[in-house]
Amino acid sequence: MRAPLLLMGFTLIASMSLSLTGCSSASGDPGKPTPTPSATYAVPAETARPDETVIKAPVVTDGLMRFRVLAFRDGMASLVGSHAEWPAKGQYVRIRVLVESIDRSNQQFDARQQLAIASDGRSFHIDLAAQTTKRQPFELVVGSFVRMEFDLWFDVPKDAEITKMRLFGEPPLGVIGKSKGVEVTIR
Questions:
Q1: H or E stretch at 176
Q2: Is residue 145 part of a domain?
Q3: Which of 42, 69, 130, 154 could form a disulfide with 116, with the two C-beta atoms 3.0–4.6 Å apart?
């Protein structure tokens, strides 16, 4: 009778030892869980507007804002809003961007700080009339981990070939001075 009980005891201890070994991490540290890959959102792709070029630039970060340039269009002689058609002084350039706060607090996005950069180094701020006519934002409060997508409109000289965007986020708390921005190549 003692032999079967003793055998059951050894079997129980051996199975517990095996189950504990199976729970240990690959590093051999039983107190540290093995990380699992992060899940990703299944965000459906959107069809680009027929007149724009899709940009495959990498995501960039400035301060506590993340930016992705999505699409580009240049060479527009005029634009049409809900109540007006407005001619360009030179040519209109439209750049579609996605901005995202990557912080626990709200971030300020100021469209007037963003720059379109020409191949010869000239830089251009958004055009206030175009931005207003197309009902696109000037300033936004981007909530914690919120993404927003919209257009930035520029009126640039006809001879300007826009090749880059310089994007500016809000500096992190405690940083003194303004950001120098981060550049994204468009073409």
A1: none
A2: yes
A3: 154
The region, left, alpha or beta by phi > 0 then psi within -120 to 50, assigned to residue 63 is: left
CA distance 121 to 160: 10
| Alpha-helical segments (H) within the chain | 2-23, 128-133
Look up residue 71 and give its two tokens: 């699409």
Q: Which residue segment(s) compose the domain that 151 sits in?
A: 64-185
For residues 139, 137, 125, 105, the Cα torsion angle rounded to the nearest 10 degrees is: 30
CATH code of the domain containing 162: 2.60.40.1240
What are the tokens at 22?
């199976």
Mean model confidence pLDDT for the chain:
86
> pTM for this one?
0.77
89-108 pLDDT per residue, tens: 999 999 999 999 999 889 89
CA-nearest of 119, 118, 67 to 97 is 67
Report if residue 130 sits inside a domain: yes
pLDDT in tens, 108-150: 999 999 999 999 999 999 999 999 999 999 999 999 999 999 9
Number of domains in the chain: 1
